[in-house]
Amino acid sequence: MGEIRLENVDKSYGDKEIIKSLSLTIEDGSFTVLVGPSGCGKSTILRIIAGLEKKTGGNVFIGNKNVEGVEPGKRNLAMVFQNYALYPTMTVRQNIEFGLKNIKIPKQERDRLIDEVTGIVGLTAHLEKKPQFLSGGERQRVALARAMVKKPAVFLMDEPLSNLDAKLRQQLRLELIELHNRLGATFLYVTHDQVEAMSMGTKIVLMDNGRIMQEDTAHDIYNYPKNVFSSKFIGSPPMNVLELGELSEYLPTPLPAGVKFVGFRPEKAKIAENRRGSGGDGLSLEATVTGREMLGSEILYSVELTNKRKLAVKVMDDTEISQLEYGTQIGLFISSRHIIFFNDAEERVTAPYRAESKVI
Amino acid sequence: MKILGKSASILGKILISALLILIFVVPFYWMILTAVKTLGEVVQFPPKFWTDAIQWHNFKDAFDAIDFLHYTKNSLVITAGTLLGQALFILPASYAFARYDFKGKKLLFSIVLLTMMIPGQLIFLPVFVMYVKLGLLNSYISLIIPFAANGLAIFMLRQTFMQVPDSILEAARLDNAGEFKIIYSIMLPMAVPTISTLALFTFITSWNSYFFPLAWTTTDAVRTLPVGIQQLQSSLGLNPQVVMAGVVLMVVPILVIFVIARKQIIKAFTYMGIK
Amino acid sequence: MERSVRLKPRNGERTGWSMARPYILVLPAIAILAVFYIYPIFYNVYLSFHSWNMRGSMKFIGLQNYLELFKSADFRQIIMNTLVYMLMNVSLTVVLAIALAMFLRKSTLISRFIQTLSFTPNIISLVSISMIWSWLMTADESGLFNYVLSFLGLGPFGWLSDKHLALFSLVLVAIWKSVGLNALIITSSLGSIPDYLYEAARLDNASKSATFFSITLKMISPTLFFLILMNIISSFEVFETINVMTQGGPDNATNTLVFSIYKQGFEYYRIGYASAMAVILMIMIGLITVFYFKALEKNVHYR
């Protein structure tokens, strides 16, 4: 019912290509997150699926049906907008009811459906209020209820949490995950926030410049980035990526063929205060501490290599080990199974390292 | 010293406030007082600031001196006609300017902007000549149609329609609302504050309109109340109490409306002033 | 990506109806504006080259109307009157409105009351106001103004009968009518000046007058500029007060362009001659508008 398939979809405004022959299958019942920097085309994809924007080429299938020429309202989907897009002159009830009225659902049935969804999102007490008298979180819930009441197979969400404050955002993230589990419908969620993407998506589609850069689970996209872009977009702080020329002397051998870039996650580096990293199979670096950020459970150091290259290193905070001071000379060691190599097309050249015995 | 200075400034403020109140109240007070005096009281010296017996018949005299009902009816017809005309012409135009792209839109909209700069006093003569040639003199139409479209109103309403976020319209499309339904149940309700501001402004301007009903007519057939009341002055100049009674009859209804809708009217005028 | 999208014809189908629809909605209004505001401007110029008394046929006489105008001492006086009236009205209205707005700045019961009171003349027809003020300004002692002023040992003044005073009397009426609205508009502009500017000025030890001139006036300058233009245009439009109170007299002292166009056109039926005056009025308004926008570009502080 709720599978979405895009085949070679193109979109351009005049000469400007926004989407370049993009193909993508969004599984029925998945919580798929489209993530990428602003301008990457993620919202355009959403709007093309909704039928709000006309594509320049390609096909879109929803539930195996080509939706070419099908009205937005007839695509069996609902959308939640970034600014909620509530009808300001209508009460909460009228907002939710509007879509039902337009498809001529009888009054009794409408009331039953409204009771049901407002119960789920906890809006029962606010039904007769106008949106301007609701808080941001409540408006968000109205937008959700308005989408849910139509019982669509697909929910499209365009950065729905970005106008909320951090705490509420966290709470609604959890609620959305629960809602997804409960409804079993396909959720297609657009965001520029990689943390949001990682925490919610059963599947993450990372986009840049109108192309899909990687399509994976949160775990795999973090641990096995397919390319430099992916390694830098996902994760905070991003992966340290160095050019091979900057540190060839330190590298373990043998190197895979065609390597141009070397990357590792900030938390994979082990710190040894006696400058030289412990030996073994991996990458050893010498560095100087130039900054320290206390994150709570972790400490984020910024360090500088002898060639002035800056790196980020994250370690668990441990009261038994004193924190490193500015200017301290340290050694870094990164085990070779945590090193990721990219070629000069910025694509990963090594196969993902997977410990056979471990279960994710 | 400081305390003295402070109380002096408070006293100054009170005096200025009192003076301001007098400046704006006295003309109205004098109008009403004159309207209920006898001719003897009116011309007596020194003037009396009170009257012993209210002369209600002054109002009847004013009412009888001109065809009061006729002028009132004209004012009502022209005001209602202008409001209706504006709804018919301004609403669709400003909606289309706000929400459609079409060839020549820029050029057509520049006509709208241009007319915002043209005062009516600049074109009353050529329009009068047009009316003479078309035989439209002394018709209601001639006093309604030119005001049924208005550059400023189109501009402001277009602004309002443009400010409706696109996402709301898209949400409505996803809710299976057709274009007419979107206009009727989303756009128009959202424009109600602007529409009522414009309507109030038009109502008051049209009701008070004097220049065009005078300039574009040669008989009394469609002349409005302000034109009629002014004729009291020429025919009854020696009876200021009757003239003022006529003025009271014209002013009081609008003052009553002002008292009722004070906030909206002030908002409307300030808004029209700022834009 | 987050660009706005117009409500386009569904799925881009360019049917005849969807192509024609915007024009059907727009053209009736545009037609009115074109017929009653744009075309008359040109027609006016056309008329000004003709001689016509509304009967018989029009006669082309070239620039003769203009030549006659420029030779006429009356016309020079009319232009002078128009300009003097405009200058007095604009400067006094704006200065007094600023003073009134500053005085009423703090929102108290009494200041709101005065605000409402001073606004009231705006909703009343100018004809009634003119009739009331004619009565107040009656020249002999039964006129209220002269009576009150006699206590101060002043007058009696021939408010409307003294040719040196009459134009100013008309300005007084115009100010009384519009100062309240002008002040209201200034007040709302004052309200949008952020407090931190005043706090910063206090920290910089700015005097009251320095604060007023370099913060308050600067910040409301866009509004003031706008009000000046509006008042200039409404000064040119003045008609009601003249027609009711002075009929252009005494001795032509209050005869302005619009009134004189009206007189020449509607009482003497000199359509061409009146049109020539209207063309000159149009040029004056056009020049001032252009000058205004030029000055606006240069001088006004925009937030």
From TrEMBL, chain A:
GO terms for molecular function: ABC-type transporter activity; ATP binding; ATP hydrolysis activity. GO terms for cellular component: ATP-binding cassette (ABC) transporter complex, substrate-binding subunit-containing. One of its GO terms (biological process) is carbohydrate transport. Keywords: ATP-binding, Cell membrane, Membrane, Nucleotide-binding, Translocase, Transport. The keyword Transcription does not apply. Pfam families: ABC_tran (PF00005), TOBE_2 (PF08402). It comes from the Bacteria. Residues 4-234 form the ABC transporter domain. This is sn-glycerol 3-phosphate transport system ATP-binding protein.
TrEMBL record, chain B:
Residues 72-261 form the ABC transmembrane type-1 domain. CDD domains: TM_PBP2 (cd06261). Keywords: Cell membrane, Membrane, Transmembrane, Transmembrane helix, Transport. InterPro entries: MetI-like, MetI-like_sf. One of its GO terms (biological process) is transmembrane transport. The keyword Manganese does not apply. It is found in: Cell membrane. The chain crosses the membrane at residues 12-32, 76-95, 107-131, 137-157, 182-204, 242-261. Its main location: membrane. GO terms for cellular component: plasma membrane. Pfam families: BPD_transp_1. It is a multi-pass membrane protein. PANTHER family: ABC TRANSPORTER PERMEASE PROTEIN MG189-RELATED, ABC TRANSPORTER PERMEASE PROTEIN MG189-RELATED-RELATED. Belongs to the binding-protein-dependent transport system permease family. This is Carbohydrate ABC transporter membrane protein 2, CUT1 family (TC 3.A.1.1.-). The lineage of its organism: Bacteria, Bacillati, Bacillota, Clostridia, Eubacteriales.
From TrEMBL, chain C:
The chain crosses the membrane at residues 20-42, 83-104, 116-136, 142-160, 167-190, 210-233, 271-293. It is found in: Cell membrane. Residues 79-292 form the ABC transmembrane type-1 domain. GO terms for cellular component: plasma membrane. It is a multi-pass membrane protein. Pfam families: BPD_transp_1 (PF00528). It comes from the Bacteria. Gene3D superfamilies: MetI-like. One of its GO terms (biological process) is transmembrane transport. Its main location: membrane. PROSITE patterns: ABC_TM1 (PS50928). Keywords: Cell membrane, Membrane, Transmembrane, Transmembrane helix, Transport. Belongs to the binding-protein-dependent transport system permease family. PANTHER family: ABC TRANSPORTER PERMEASE PROTEIN (PTHR30193), INNER MEMBRANE ABC TRANSPORTER PERMEASE PROTEIN YCJO (PTHR30193:SF37). This is sn-glycerol 3-phosphate transport system permease protein. The lineage of its organism: Bacteria, Bacillati, Bacillota, Clostridia, Eubacteriales.
